[in-house]
Amino acid sequence: MREFLAPMGQIMQQTDSLDATDSRLLSALQRDATLTAQDLGERLNLSPSQAARRRQRLEQAGVITGYRATVAPDRIGLGVEAFIHVVMAAHSEENARDFRRLCYTRAEIVAAWTLTGEADFLLRVWCADLSALSRLVQQALLPHPAVARVQSQIVLDRVKPDAPLPLAAG
Predict the structure, then answer these.
(1) In what order do the strands lie in the sheet with 121-127?
(2) Which of 157, 149, 170 is nearest to 26 (CA)?
(3) What is the pLDDT of residues 5-56, one digit of tens each?
(4) What does the alpha-carbon distance between residue 101 and residue 90 come to, in Å, rounded to a whole number?
(5) Is 4 in contact with 65 (CB distance < 8 Å)?
(6) In terms of DSSP H, where are the helices of 88-145?
(7) Model confidence over 60-84: pLDDT tens digits?
(8) What distance in Å separates the CA atoms of residue 81 and residue 144, rounded to the nearest whole number?
(9) Contact assessment for residue 118 and residue 124, using Cβ atoms and an 8 Å cutoff
(10) What pTM, to 2 d.p., does this model score?
(11) What is the pLDDT of residue 169?
(12) What number of CA atoms fall less than 13 Å from residue 134's CA on the CB side?
């Protein structure tokens, strides 16, 4: 993923600094990040150079954080998506740091969140099959000293796959 870093003083404070054209530009790029300045200009009734400047300003301000391709999991051998709730054995900075490190070292873990409630972490994982998911749980997660318990939920059907973020009309 190509990422953009904004200088500290240039980060937009609130979404109200986005106007309607910015919102339309962001919507278009969320649907298709490969749009050229020419394409964006046509869709937004702007010149290509105006569209490019707006995109660059949103990148520099940290509103656009990167671009990535969406890959079909089944086409690359990933047949099982699961969500795993992780309960920590003890709540300490060291445990959290060590577990976060594990999350970054395992390619199967594609997203991880800290939570309120019973579970401390929620992991989104993609594995080739149920055996690979079992190995991840049995050989990587459960033996980790920071982990007390895990609960896996296997996705049966993706009703609404990852969607673009909702944008205000500006």
Answers:
(1) 109-114, 121-127, 80-88, 147-154
(2) 170
(3) 544 444 444 445 899 999 999 999 999 999 999 999 999 999 999 999 999 9
(4) 16
(5) yes
(6) 93-105, 130-135
(7) 999 999 999 999 999 999 999 999 9
(8) 22
(9) no
(10) 0.82
(11) 55
(12) 3
Instruction: Please report which residue ranges of 32-124 form alpha helices under DSSP H.
Output: 37-44, 48-60, 93-105
Of 81, 116, 101, the C-alpha closest to 147 is 101
CB 132 within 8 A of CB 82: no
The tokens for 107 are 């390619």
Alpha carbons 119 and 85: distance in angstroms, whole number: 6
C-beta of residue 147 within 8 angstroms of C-beta of residue 87: yes
Q: Using alpha carbons only, what angle is made at residue 49 by residues 47 and 51, rounded to the nearest 5 degrees?
A: 70
Sort 140 into a burial class: Cβ within 10 Å, 0-12 / 13-18 / 19+.
middle
Q: What is the pLDDT of residues 113-139, one digit of tens each?
A: 999 999 999 999 999 999 999 999 999
